[in-house]
Amino acid sequence: MMTIKELRSKAMKLPLSPGVYIMKNLKQEIIYIGKAKALKNRVSQYFGSDKNHPEKVRQMVSNVNDFDYILCDSEFEALVLECSLIKQHKPKYNILLKDDKGYSYIRVSKEEWPRITFEMQKKDDGAEYLGPYMSSWYAKNAVDETLKIFRLPSCSKTFSADAAKGRPCLNYYIKQCSAPCCHKISRKEYGESVAAAVDFLKKGNSDSIKIMTKKMNDAAENLEFELAAKYRDRITAVKRITEKQNVVAANISDQDAVSLMTEGGDACFAVIRFEGGRLYDKEDFLIKDIGDDADLASLRREFIQQFYTMRDKIPPVIAIDGEAENEALLADWLSQKAGRKVKFLHPQKGEQMHILAMSRQNAAERLAQSRGHLGHELTALDELAKLLGLPKIPVLIESYDISNLAGTENVAGMIVFKNGRPYKSSYRRFRIKGFTGQDDYASMNEVLTRRFEEYFKNKDTGEGFGQLPDLILLDGGKGQVSAVRPVLERFGLTIPLFGMVKDGSHRTRAITDEGREISITSKRQAFTLVSTIQDEVHRFAIGYHRLSRKKKTFSSSLTEIDGIGQERAKALLSYFKTIKRIREADVEELMNVKCMTRPSAEAVYRYYHYADGSVIDRPEKKTESDDTR
Asked: Is residue 306 within 8 Å of residue 86, measured between CB atoms?
């Protein structure tokens, strides 16, 4: 096997020309294909220092035994060749999208009570099939909408004569099914509804509304008011569906919106597609093991190449949620493939931004499901990351708050949110030890110092204090941030650090660093997340403070006893937990506490059992003779 040094030496002999490079493993299998504007510069980078390489690139390089290359006349020609070779060889370390875009159909069964269903394959079963449809998402939605509009069943119940004895399901009562299973509708009426539904699927919204409007007017003229009302309800339902689609597609003609979400080394791309002012398709692609430090611009370029290599239909506009590597070159390639100009958009506001946000929400939901949590949690984290300008989603967030009463019982609470949820096993409590009195800034400095000292002691474990957060949120303004910033600098850490600012009603209103305030009230999901974190850290810190004060009060009452100081008072409380149990203990039980002597135990016993030389009434323990009296 060639060494890295030998591979670098070979790479340094390459020409400074555009081309495609082909990485191979020990078995001479192609494991990666890439293109370069200057082959020598690009390929030699792989075999130099790996400090700046993402983890996935380091893994790929460790498996490279040799490489080939193909010279091209231009970088554009290299891009076209790269796409062709990736499609042909499907290398392990390139992004490989599964092309599962088969045709789908809508099936209308031929039976006594016909059914309308979505199908992925056309069978020779005598049924009527509508289609084929390129978008399975569109066909499935069309069936769902049609069944609701015409009140047709979506269940698998049988409609036999005996079925009439049963009760209809919820769909009947919410007017989404006519309950043929319970014979709430005649076979003739049911057949007419199916025929109208098929007509709707074949002719579309506008033609269907015209036909139903004419039938409604005819029925009204013939005084068939029940029939006219039925057509009226169907027209209303069709218009409602149409209006819903128009809201989504307002001012959007033919274009795609491509979004990328990453979390925990995985990624998901979502594409929503518009044609003729209507959303007609949605696709998402889950990509595993890209690494936490993946180059997102490179990832977008690879995805766009793969996606549109698999698709014949390329829109004139593609909105993307971040920069793609070689974007101008990609646009030229897509323009050539489409036979007309194709451009990329990076929307920042308005309708286009709304469409892109919808695409990101789909990507977040798919990625969250694959990782076992909820999509809105990932969306909130993504919204927060964008708001604060973070390089990646903050999977692990630590938050701190200080609590005291006029400088007494000075304590702090640390909470952790993981994947947008409280991670209570990592919550920690701190008692301020470095000084007495009230100084929230010094307290915050001490707490973070102690926290990161523990990190360097435990970082090999990768658990608890042995892992670093992606974001630190302090309950307070820029003063707290300024107090903690030197701690991070002293330890050489570059963790994003912000304060959470409250308004006059003690509600979260903004996030701040040392120089600016960032309003979060307009970002609904991020606002909810930050508010939850701030409320939780405040609850945790003040709860610890109240507990400390309670113990302090108990301890103070014990120190009034001769021979009982702070240490013995703490030991007694630790052993017995409550003053009541201390009061009820006898001398021998009190002597079980470490550091207690007989004289001190007798002093405690006398304190709680005698007053002015008299024995205080206390229930005596029952004996066997007492129970039998």
From this structure: yes
Read off the pLDDT of residues 123-146 as tens digits, 9 standing for 90 and up. Answer: 888 899 987 776 777 788 788 888
Helix, strand, coil percentages for the chain (3-state, nearest 5): 50, 20, 35
Q: How far apart are CA 302 and CA 269, in angstroms?
A: 11
Phi and psi torsions of 386, nearest 5°: -65, -40
Kindly report, residue by residue over 455-479, the tens digit of the pLDDT. 999 888 888 899 999 999 998 888 8
Domains of the chain, with CATH numbers? 4-89 (3.40.1440.10), 106-249 (no CATH), 255-372 (3.30.420.10), 396-550 (3.30.420.340), 559-615 (1.10.150.20)
Q: Which residues contact 625 (CB under 8 A, 6 or more apart)?
A: none
Contacts of 500 (CB under 8 A, 6+ apart): 399, 473, 474, 475, 476, 508, 511, 512, 530, 533, 534
Taking the alpha carbons at both ends of the chain, their separation in whole angstroms is 96
464: DSSP letter: G
Three-state secondary structure call for residue 597: coil
Looking at the chain, how many residues does it have?
629
pTM of the model: 0.63
Antiparallel, parallel or unpaired: β 343-345 and 317-320: parallel
The residue with tokens 């304060």 is: 499
Do residues 64 and 7 touch, judged by C-beta distance below 8 A?
yes
Residue that is written with structure tokens 């308004």 in the block: 503
User: At CA 505, angle to CA 500 and CA 509, rounded to 5?
Assistant: 35
Which two tokens mark 71?
């010279």
Instruction: Give dist(CA 464, CA 156) in Å, integer.
Output: 51
Helices (H), ranges, 326-477: 327-338, 350-370, 375-388, 440-458
pLDDT of the residue at 455 = 92
- The pLDDT of residue 74 is 94
10 Å CB burial of residue 268 (0-12, 13-18, 19+) is buried
Pairing state between β 66-71 and 317-320: unpaired
The closest of 122, 128, 125, 74 to 102, measured between CA atoms, is 122
CB-based burial of residue 503 (10 Å sphere; 0-12 exposed, 13-18 middle, 19+ buried)? Answer: exposed
Low-confidence ranges of the chain (pLDDT < 50): 244-250, 611-629
Question: What's the Rg (C-alpha) of the chain?
Answer: 35
Whether 236 contacts 243, CB under 8 Å:
no
The pLDDT value given to residue 51 = 79
The DSSP code sequence of 100-139 is ----EEEEE--SSS--EEEESS--SSS-EEEEEES-HHHH
Question: CA-CA distances (angstroms) from residue 215 to 194, 220, 586?
Answer: 16, 9, 95
Give the burial class of 507: count Cβ atoms within 10 A of its Cβ; 0-12 exposed, 13-18 middle, 19 or more buried. Answer: exposed
Q: How far is CA 194 from the centre of its chain?
A: 41
Largest CA distance in the chain: 112
**469 prior amide bond cis, ω within 30:** no
Tokens describing residue 380:
């909130």
Is residue 14 classed exposed, middle or buried when 0-12, 13-18 and 19+ CB atoms within 10 A define those classes? buried
Q: Which residue has the tokens 């903004």?
A: 510
Q: Helices in 503-622 by DSSP H: which ranges?
A: 524-558, 566-576, 579-584, 587-590, 598-609
Which residue, chain included where needed, has tokens 């009562």?
173
Q: How far is CA 476 from CA 59, 293, 330, 369, 517, in A?
A: 43, 31, 46, 34, 12
Contact yes or no for 544/429 (Cβ under 8 A): yes
CA atoms of 473 and 489, how far apart (whole Å): 17
